[in-house]
């Protein structure tokens, strides 16, 4: 057997390893699983996220805090008590005299009565503060859910790509080893061996970069799901999940409406404007002076012993009518209204941009012939036949080898881009548009 025929036989034997079937690729995914590996679907990831994410749990406490402020705003002003006694009677020389004839004591009780509905207006502001805390919580959930979903899909497709690299590198390592033996015997030229080693080094470098990306995704999921740092995740995604949703089933006007209803960051701006209006009402109420009721008991200091008296007091709003705070509240209302208008435009722009990007990705995905990989595998058989006939050399064969790898990686990236674009629409509208 000639050296060329020998090398062809080697490549033909290794070919099924380099270009496995789809089932073989799925089986290879099991190589990711370790004793600390958690297999989970996207729904399971959502469930764990909602139950264990520390940032979400901390934000939920913010709502509890604001409810406490509501309770505080509902409380009324405490009464004030004033007690006075004489420490020493110079005539009788008694110290702290409490007898009827030689002692003097005064007791006063005051109660502030807030007028103009100040208490109710403060309660309204506190309730809006709770609504703002709720807005922040749901906007945080929207942001972190988007990060969870995009990381989940990115990790899944990165692991798919890693399988391709693992298979090709394993094949090339065997091929390089055999070529090295044949080169040592003088059966193959140095340029062919160098070409194989260079391509193997390129694949190894690309694989290392992919491993860095996987490590970043794993780290993000560990934080999002509040798991041990030693945990690794194996996302489970079915073909039905990928093909179930399509941006073509969505209408842009409907997405605008959903964003108006479900974007809690936009609702936060509106609640802020609402709170500024409530603050103006409160500042106007503060211009109205409060009433003070007073009861007095004087033992011996009045014109008669055991004097009882009641009184009423009120500030005269002659100089300070709270004009500055009222004017500032009006300015803040105008500012908040402009912020609402500006952010509404921003939200609509986010929705439109996400929709257009998803359409473009969907169009590319739908035009891609999913039978391409099978056709490419059959093409490799033809390439091998031509290689046996010495119609192509090892360099041309490696070019087809590289093309197969690129097609697999690019297809996985295309699927990833499509799912990422659908998640971006969900992020832009604040809810899952396919469930509405």
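^ structure tokens above, recovered residues below v
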């Amino acid at each position: 057997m000639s050296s060329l025929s020998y090398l062809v036989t080697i490549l033909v034997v290794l070919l099924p390893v380099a270009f496995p079937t789809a089932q073989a690729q799925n089986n290879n995914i099991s190589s990711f699983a370790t004793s600390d590996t958690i297999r989970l679907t996207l729904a399971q990831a959502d469930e764990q996220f909602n139950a264990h994410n520390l940032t979400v749990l901390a934000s939920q406490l913010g709502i509890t805090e604001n409810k406490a402020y509501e309770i505080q705003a509902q409380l009324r002003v405490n009464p004030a008590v004033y007690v006075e006694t004489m420490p020493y009677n110079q005539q009788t020389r008694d110290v702290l005299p409490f007898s009827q004839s030689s002692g003097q004591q005064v007791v006063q009780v005051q109660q502030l009565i807030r007028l103009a509905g100040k208490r109710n207006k403060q309660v309204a502001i506190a309730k809006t503060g709770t609504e703002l805390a709720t807005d922040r919580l749901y906007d945080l959930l929207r942001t972190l859910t988007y990060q969870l979903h995009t990381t989940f899909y990115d990790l899944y497709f990165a692991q798919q790509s890693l399988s391709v690299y693992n298979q090709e590198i394993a094949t090339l390592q065997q091929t390089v080893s055999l070529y090295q033996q044949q080169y040592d015997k003088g059966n193959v030229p140095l340029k062919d061996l160098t070409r194989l080693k260079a391509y193997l080094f390129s694949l190894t470098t690309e694989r290392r970069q992919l491993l860095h990306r996987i490590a970043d995704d794993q780290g993000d999921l560990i934080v999002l799901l509040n798991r041990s740092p030693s945990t690794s995740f194996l996302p489970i995604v079915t073909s039905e999940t990928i093909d179930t949703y399509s941006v073509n089933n969505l209408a842009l006007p409907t997405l605008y409406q959903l964003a108006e209803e479900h974007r809690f960051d936009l609702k936060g701006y509106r609640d802020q404007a609402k709170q500024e209006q409530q603050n103006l009402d409160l500042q106007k109420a503060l211009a109205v002076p409060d009433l003070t009721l007073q009861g007095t008991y004087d033992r011996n200091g009045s014109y008669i012993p055991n004097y009882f008296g009641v009184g009423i007091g009120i500030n005269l709003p002659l100089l300070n009518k709270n004009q500055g705070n009222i004017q500032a509240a009006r300015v803040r209302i105008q500012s908040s209204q402009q912020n609402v208008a500006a952010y509404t435009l921003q939200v609509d722009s986010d929705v439109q941009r996400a929709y257009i990007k998803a359409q473009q990705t969907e169009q590319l995905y739908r035009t891609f012939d999913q039978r391409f990989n099978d056709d490419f595998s059959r093409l490799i058989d033809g390439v091998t036949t031509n290689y046996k006939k010495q119609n192509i050399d090892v360099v041309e064969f490696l070019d087809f080898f590289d093309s197969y790898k690129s097609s697999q990686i690019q297809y996985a990236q295309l699927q990833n881009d499509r799912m990422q674009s659908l998640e971006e629409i969900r992020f832009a509208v604040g809810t899952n548009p396919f469930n509405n």
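Confidence is low (pLDDT under 50) at residues 1-30.
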